[in-house]
TrEMBL record:
Transmembrane segments: none annotated. One of its GO terms (molecular function) is ATP hydrolysis activity. Residues 2-227 form the ABC transporter domain. It comes from Geodermatophilus amargosae. PROSITE patterns: ABC_TRANSPORTER_1, ABC_TRANSPORTER_2. PANTHER family: ABC TRANSPORTER, ATP-BINDING PROTEIN. Pfam families: ABC_tran. Keywords: ATP-binding, Nucleotide-binding, Transport. This is ABC-2 type transport system ATP-binding protein. Belongs to the ABC transporter superfamily.
Length: 311
C-alpha cells in the first residue's frame, strides 16, 4: 500500500504537487492520470525518495522509503527506462543492482525470465530497443520481489505487442496481491489495464475512483427499452428529464438515475425490457474532468474541435 498524506512539493514558485492525499491499495492496478505538468512524475519520485516533500509525507508499506532497511524489497520502480549504463549487459546491470541491495544473484535469472529477456541477457544495454529497455527496467524493479510496483509511462513508445505484454504483466502482478501504480497518457490502454484511477491536475487530486464509476458518472445517460416507450418518454420529459428516442422502443435519458426511471415506470405500470446506464469512454470522461486543468494546449487551426494538450 502507498499512503500519500498532504503531499506538497514546490520547485521555485511552482507547486508541482499541492496538498495531495490519496491511498493506493494492493491487489489492483491503479492508473495515475493527469495532463502534462500535473505532478505525476514528481509524486512518483517522492514515493521512492528521489525527491523530498516540501511538506506532508509518503508511506510505502507503512514506512517512509528511507526508513526501510531494504527499500528495493518493498518498492520497485520504473521511472526512466534508459537509466541503465549503456556499456553494461542486461545481466551485469541487474547483478550490480542485486549486489548493492543485498539480493541473491539467483534472483537475476528469475527476473530476466519473468520479463522474457533471456535471449538478450548478455547483450549491451546501449543497443537495446525501447521495448527491451522497458523490459529491463521492469526486471530491475522486480529484483527485490517488492509488494509495491511503480511505473512511470511504461508503454510510451512501445509497439502493440509490447503494450499487450505490459498490460498482462501488470494485471498479473496485481493478481498476486501487489500494489501496482502506473502513469500513462494513453487512455485506451488505461481503460484496459487499470481497475482504479487517481487523477491529478495542477498538483491537486481531481478524482480517486474505480474505472466503473469514472466512466458511468461521466455519461449520465441511461438507455431504456420498452414497448410503451412513448408513454414513458412523456412522463419523464414532464418530470424534467432530457429524453431522445433513437428507435421506436428505445429511449436515451439524461437527468435521471436508473432507479428514478424504474420507479417512474413501475408507478405507471410500464414494462421495461432493458435499463442500462451508458458508459462514456475513459478518454471522454477524462477530458471532461481535466479540461480546466490543462496547462499546455495546442492552438486549434481548423476551428472545428477544441485543441488538446501538447507539450
Ligand atoms: N526538478 C524540477 N525543477 C523544477 N520544476 C520541476 C522539476 N520537476 C518538475 N517540475 C515542475 O513541476 C510540475 C510537475 O511536473 P511533473 O513532471 O511532475 O508532471 P507530470 O504530471 O509528470 O507531467 P508529464 O505528464 O508531462 O510527464 C511542472 O510544472 C514541472 O515543470
Amino acid at each position: 500500500m502507498i499512503e500519500i498524506r498532504n503531499l506538497t512539493k514546490v520547485y521555485g514558485g511552482t507547486h508541482a504537487v499541492d496538498d495531495l492525499t490519496v491511498t493506493v491499495r494492493p491487489g489492483r492496478v491503479t492508473g495515475f492520470l493527469g495532463p502534462n505538468g500535473a505532478g505525476k512524475s514528481t509524486t512518483m519520485r517522492t514515493i521512492v525518495g528521489l525527491d523530498r516533500p516540501t511538506s506532508g509525507e509518503v508511506l510505502v508499506t507503512g514506512r517512509r522509503y528511507a526508513d526501510h532497511p531494504a527499500p528495493m524489497r518493498e518498492v520497485g520502480a520504473l521511472l526512466d527506462a534508459k537509466a541503465a549504463h549503456p556499456g553494461r549487459t542486461a545481466v551485469t546491470h541487474l547483478r550490480a543492482l542485486a549486489v548493492t541491495n543485498g539480493i541473491p544473484r539467483s534472483r537475476v535469472d528469475e527476473v530476466v525470465a519473468m520479463v522474457g529477456l533471456q535471449e538478450a541477457a548478455d547483450r549491451r544495454v546501449g543497443g537495446f530497443s525501447l521495448g527491451m529497455a522497458q523490459r529491463l527496467g521492469i526486471a530491475a524493479a522486480l529484483l527485490g520481489d517488492p509488494e509495491v510496483v511503480l511505473l512511470d509511462e511504461p508503454v510510451n513508445g512501445l509497439d502493440p505487442d509490447g503494450i499487450r505484454w505490459i498490460r498482462g504483466f501488470l494485471r498479473g502482478l496485481a493478481g498476486e496481491g501487489r500494489t501496482v501504480f502506473v502513469s500513462s497518457h494513453l487512455m485506451s490502454e488505461m481503460a484496459l489495464t487499470a481497475d482504479h484511477l487517481v487523477i491529478v491536475g495542477r498538483g491537486r487530486l481531481l478524482a480517486d475512483v474505480s474505472m466503473e464509476e469514472m466512466t458511468a458518472s461521466a455519461s449520465g445517460q441511461v438507455r431504456v427499452r420498452s414497448p410503451q416507450a412513448q408513454e414513458l418518454a412523456r412522463l419523464l420529459a414532464g418530470a424534467g428529464a432530457a429524453v431522445t428516442r433513437s428507435e421506436p422502443d428505445v429511449l436515451s435519458i439524461t437527468g435521471r438515475t436508473s432507479t428514478d426511471i424504474a420507479e417512474t415506470a413501475l408507478a405507471a405500470r410500464i414494462l421495461l425490457t432493458e435499463l442500462t446506464p451508458v458508459h462514456a469512454s475513459l478518454e471522454d470522461a477524462y477530458l471532461a474532468l481535466t479540461a480546466p486543468d490543462v496547462q499546455y494546449r495546442a492552438i486549434d487551426h481548423d476551428h472545428t474541435a477544441p485543441g488538446r494538450a501538447a507539450a
